[in-house]
Amino acid sequence: MKNRLLASLPPEDFGYIAAQLSHQDLEKGKLLYDPGDQIDTVYFPHDCVISLMTLMENGAAIESATIGREGGMGLMAAISPRQSLSRAIVQAPGGVSRISASALREGVERSAILRDLIERHNDALFGHAIQSVACNALHAVEARFCRWLLGFRDRIDVDTISLTQEFLADMLGVQRTTVTAVAGALQAKGLIRYRRGVVDILDRAGLEAIACECYGAVRKGYERLLPEPFGS
Fold first, then answer.
1. Claim: this prediction has a pTM higher than 0.90
2. For 161-185, how does the pLDDT look when each residue is reduced to its tens digit (9 = 90+)?
3. How many CA atoms lie within 13 A of 22 on its CB side?
């Protein structure tokens, strides 16, 4: 059980939903929800990463938050029926535990601990999204790039990340040429190795030194509200 939210539940409370959970492997790029879709399934990532994307009418998009093993996708629907507010797309492939929103709501009605944990996760995710708004408006692309790489690595525990220029451009809300320039500059400093579709993190401490304050702020928000959100 790599998902920290599920793993933190006491056995009795986990038992309220255990029989309704099923495993699924999600491939990179899989679309889970678009804005306005009814959230009928909740996903608890184990080793995959899900991006929440804010879409514009002209087709432009930017990432507003990321969900990995620290939480779940669609948890707002555990309290009452909800429609998705953003596009949810698989950023890194891997396994999830999935459960119907209605079954999770039944578990929440029986377990005050589960309800409290979900509400805490929703608070942390909201704080993450708020921080992203400020970050995208106020901080340089290089600092945001480093913040994004570090946050991604926190959720997968590997230093080699498979990412295309197009995907990174969408995450950061910039042109692909900007991604190339920033990645090249970080490579020249010896912090990463950038190959076609792959980023190798070589110097985590160096990336932390360049990353904006938002990396630490988002991480602290999860650590304050959730048990062991990323790992030791």
1. yes
2. 888 888 888 888 888 899 889 999 9
3. 8
